[in-house]
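One thing: can you check what follows?
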Amino acid sequence: MNRSSKSVGQLPTPAIEIGPGDRGYLQATFKACEQLAKSHYENFTVGSRLIPKKLRPHFYSIYAFSRCVDDLGDVAEGNRLELLNLWEEQLDACYLNCPDSMGPTNPYFIALAQTIRLFNIPADPFKMLIEANRRDQEITRTETFNDLLEYCTYSANPVGHLVLYLCGIKDKKLQQLADLTCTGLQLANFWQDVNRDIEIGRIYIPMEDMKRFCISEQQVKSGKANDNFRALMRFEIDRTRRLFIEGYNLAKFLDPAIRTDFALFIRGGLSILQHIERKDFDVLSSRPTVSAYEKGKILTSTWIRSKLGINLVPNSAFKSVARHT
């Protein structure tokens, strides 16, 4: 492949003071991945100290790939499909085994290539994340909930598979359990980001659900959360929560050190659902978020629960806090 330095330079690229031939460059690329993870808001903690130290850098390298591919698909200037193709070329370079072949040049991929080699991760999950963002350039509406779930098999579920690879898990049944949690996290993010998605021309709420609750696109665009819209959001929140409840069964199959971080993912997703409920399902006037203080409380609580040997996710986290009428 012919990759000009100018084209590759259009991709998200961290500033690293030392060069590829310098000692410590690989460690510097992993550090850049960590810095990216810590500079972005997520509903859950990425690479917490509850993860074994030897695994943390690889959580960060996978996060950097995923975060950047989403940014290329959502906010990048220029031809996004072309940029996604360049991103995929860097990924393909991670899998070149010929000694004379040129490996990846982007620092994020220098780190990712090491992760791929150490954990023998196939290319498919990464490629599916890229494909999800290609779809976003052409498909801006989702007709049915099943269509949305199918989209999540590309946009979210591969991340769970990648995390399981870091844990040495390749069991298909456990991957399917992870899919439930990843889909739940993706859906929670969609309900949280209705306004943000409208700004870039997308609506992820299924059209069939909007029709069922008599909600028009114009109403969503105008930011008016009436009783019908609140009922719609309650409906979406309820079935998203069921995914988290079923997906939590994966915890019993995980090593204790990884189980705690999995619990953080679950609690982060459940927390955003409860924040939406506390706002009376109005996600149009402002964006609900999980504060750094609350994330700290969740982290501490999860750590204490792991030491006490009790359920890492309290029953209250799975319950609705909405007022029932």
Summary: The two ends are 61 Å apart (CA to CA). The chain has two domains: 1-138, 140-304. Residues 1-6 have pLDDT under 50 and may be disordered. Residues 256-278 form the longest helix (23 residues).
